[in-house]
Specification:
The complex is a heterodimer of chains A (about 150) and B (about 150).
Chain A: H1 5-38, E1 47-51, E2 56-63, E3 72-80, E4 86-93, E5 100-107, H2 110-118, E6 122-131, E7 136-144
Antiparallel strand pairs in A: 1-2, 2-5, 3-4, 3-6, 6-7
Chain B: H1 3-29, H2 39-61, H3 67-88, E1 98-102, E2 110-114, H4 116-149
Antiparallel strand pairs in B: 1-2
Helix pairs in contact in B: 1-2, 2-3, 3-4
The chains are: A alpha+beta (about 150), B mainly alpha (about 150).
């Protein structure tokens, strides 16, 4: 029995190399979307805010960049006040490569209208991606802009 | 002691030191790379390189049935696993494969990667290897005893 210790080594090496190859594959798959997402000019950052006199504001995000959304499975958008309070959030689950426009409608109180007129709210965007059938994942957080 | 073993130990030790010290030194002096890598990460790499060099020299100079050989080889495996966790965790091995990094491209821009599956796979591979090391140690120890009795 003792002379079969090499079988343990073999099992360990095989498992280790499977992990290394899958890791390399996962990094290789993530690298392009990551470079695109990290670009300060990427189109996902563009958010259109429309404030109406009725106290309703509408946020629209254009999801028309297939290379950015190659792996995206979920997009979340948050409207954050100057005191870092989340005023409203919305999310959308996407099949990979989905295009379109994500709309988020919010109703602002008169105080929020005044606050947001003086201090522009922060828009936080979170893009979730998965690779290898969901075995690995990546979450990318960025500031949106008008 | 066998002079061939000593030469092998010296070559192995020097190779580990060269790789784990030369590469961090090159990164720290490179204009393009030095701002991208945390200096603490480079220091840890150098420290682990010294430890690995010492353990490999011990492994080469001792025989398979020796307890120091077993300890050195198990520690080497654990350090290898720690290095893996350190790199996939962007310098945080305790996060066990989940790494968060703020990017210098704007306030609040961050990336979080989840590589836990690889950490688990490597942990299982490590445990299997440690069992193999113990079985190997017992095998050679028994053989050594048999040779002494004969």
């Amino acid at each position: 029995m003792l002379r079969y210790f090499k079988l343990f080594y073999l099992a360990s090496i095989v498992l280790k190399w499977i992990a290394y190859i899958l890791l390399a594959l996962s990094i290789y798959t993530m690298i392009n979307p990551l470079i695109n997402l990290a670009s300060p000019t990427n189109s996902l950052r563009q958010v259109k805010i429309e404030v109406k006199p009725t106290g309703t504001a509408s946020l629209a995000m254009n999801l028309d960049n297939p290379s950015l959304l190659e792996l995206a499975t979920r997009i979340r958008i948050e409207l954050v006040s100057s005191s870092d309070r989340i005023v409203r959030e919305d999310s959308l689950n996407l099949p990979p490569g989905e295009k379109g426009v994500m709309n988020l409608s919010i109703t602002l109180t008169p105080n929020q209208m005044i606050e947001f007129a003086i201090n522009q709210p922060k828009i936080l965007i979170t893009v979730n991606t998965t690779t290898l059938g969901g075995l690995t994942g990546m979450e990318f957080n960025m500031r949106g802009r008008e | 002691m066998n002079s061939g073993k000593v030469v092998k130990a010296v070559i192995e030790g020097v190779s580990y030191l060269a790789v784990f010290i030369a590469i961090p030194l090159w990164i720290s002096r490179s204009e393009q790379l030095k701002d991208m890598v945390d200096p603490a990460m480079l220091e840890t790499t150098v420290f682990l390189g010294i430890a690995l060099a010492f353990l490999h020299v011990t492994m080469t100079l001792t025989s398979k049935g020796n307890i120091f050989n077993l300890l050195a080889s198990v520690f080497t495996d654990f350090i290898g696993f720690y290095i893996f966790l350190y790199f996939i965790g962007f310098g945080s091995p305790l996060s066990f494969g989940i790494a968060k990094q703020y990017l210098p491209i704007g306030e609040g821009t961050s990336i979080t990667v989840d590589f836990r599956i690889f950490a688990w796979m490597l942990l299982v591979a490590l445990l299997v290897k440690v069992v193999g090391r113990v079985v190997e140690y017992l095998y050679f120890k028994t053989k050594l005893k048999e040779n002494l009795n004969a």
